[in-house]
Amino acid sequence: MKRLLSVMMVLALFLPMISCGEPARALGPGTEEATKAYTVTLTVTDDQTTDAEGLPMAEYRYEIPEMRTVDGAPESVQAVAETFNGEMRSLLAACMETGRQLGGWAQADPRVKGGSLYYIDQLTAVWREQGAVLCVTFQRYQDQMGPHPNITHTSRLFNLDRGCYVDPLELADDPETCRAAVEQQILAEIREDPELEAALYDDYADTVAQWNEACVSLEEDALAVTFSTYTLAPHAMGALSFRIPYGEAGLGEGGLALLGITE
Question: What's the predicted TM-score (pTM) here?
Answer without folding.
Answer: 0.85
